């Protein structure tokens, strides 16, 4: 029996098109607190070389730069890199942004004291290759810090809902596996000693479940792209499905949305 090889490059081309649709920064900027907490957990120091992988508009890179680290953000979505440059300029932060693929980072071996990713590298379709790259570019004794959505949290449910409308490519593992200690052990083995594995919650705050649905359909690139293929009753059903995710996890009692979503914050030492 033969197995069909997964065309990761074709998958990434489609992913890139998704992230370059809509305006992901309108969503990503709301997640800034996750990057601030991750950089603090990693105990970043002034002057350290820090790489933010799959940085998007640069949340973690900017968090590191605020602490006087020498920060670089890398992503394959050029529109997000440009928005990162605009953000950094507005805050007078000397962040460098470069175009690159998380599965083949355009940086030298063992070049960084700290390599981080907030809900970014988890979307690389070849999990093992992405993990290998994180190890490759981190100095021995340096740190790797990750913040990744868990399979059981609100975003995990959001992804399952989206998958009903647009099933993921065959053979590609769920990005939310990165939010489990077991998967990190599988990917990194004894190359990383995880010194901190902390379950945290990010709280999505919106006016209503419908507002959450509208915001993600308008700005969250992959969902924006999917919504653009739907019309009429299908689009209304899709919008309702997204709103139901927010409604299910909502803990607010005043009509607004305050919906916690679990993620795993992992910090480890590269051996």
Automatic annotation (TrEMBL):
Q: In its UniProt record, which GO terms are filed under biological process?
A: methylation
Name one molecular function that GO assigns to this entry. S-adenosylmethionine-dependent methyltransferase activity
Q: What CDD domains does the record point to?
A: AdoMet_MTases (cd02440)
By its UniProt entry, which Gene3D superfamilies does this protein fall under?
Answer: Vaccinia Virus protein VP39 (3.40.50.150)
Q: Which Pfam families match?
A: Methyltransf_11 (PF08241)
- Residues annotated as transmembrane: none
Q: Which InterPro entries does the record associate with it?
A: Erg6_SMT_methyltransf, Methyltransf_11, SAM-dependent_MTases_sf
Domain of life of the organism in this record?
A: Bacteria
User: Can you give the residue ranges of the Methyltransferase type domain?
Assistant: 51-144
- PANTHER family listed in its UniProt record: GERANYL DIPHOSPHATE 2-C-METHYLTRANSFERASE (PTHR44068:SF11), ZGC:194242 (PTHR44068)
Q: What is this protein called?
A: Methyltransferase family protein
Per the UniProt record, the lineage of the source organism begins with: Bacteria, Bacillati, Actinomycetota, Actinomycetes, Propionibacteriales
């Amino acid at each position: 029996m033969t197995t069909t090889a997964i065309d990761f490059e074709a998958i990434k081309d489609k992913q890139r098109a998704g992230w370059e649709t809509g305006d992901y920064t309108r969503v990503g900027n709301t997640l800034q607190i996750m990057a601030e907490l991750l950089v603090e957990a990693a105990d970043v120091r002034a002057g350290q070389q820090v790489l933010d992988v799959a940085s998007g508009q640069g949340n973690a890179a900017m968090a590191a730069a605020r602490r006087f680290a020498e920060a670089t953000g890398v992503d394959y979505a050029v529109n997000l890199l440009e928005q990162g440059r605009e953000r950094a300029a507005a805050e007078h932060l000397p962040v460098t942004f470069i175009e690159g693929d998380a599965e083949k980072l355009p940086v030298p071996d063992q070049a960084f004291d700290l390599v981080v990713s907030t809900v970014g590298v988890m979307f690389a379709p070849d999990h093992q290759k992405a993990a290998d790259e994180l190890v490759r570019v981190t100095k021995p004794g340096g740190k790797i810090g990750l913040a990744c959505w868990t399979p059981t949290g609100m975003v995990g449910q959001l992804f399952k809902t989206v998958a009903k409308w647009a099933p993921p490519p065959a053979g590609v593992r769920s990005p939310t596996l990165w939010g489990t200690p077991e998967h990190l052990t599988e990917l990194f083995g004894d190359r990383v000693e995880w010194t901190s594995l902390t379950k945290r919650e990010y709280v999505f705050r919106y006016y209503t479940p419908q507002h959450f649905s509208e915001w993600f359909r308008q700005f969250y690139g992959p969902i924006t792209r999917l919504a653009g293929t739907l019309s009429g009753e299908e689009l209304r059903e899709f919008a309702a499905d997204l709103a139901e995710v927010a409604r299910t996890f909502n803990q607010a009692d005043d009509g607004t949305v305050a919906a916690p979503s679990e993620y795993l914050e992992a910090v480890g030492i590269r051996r």
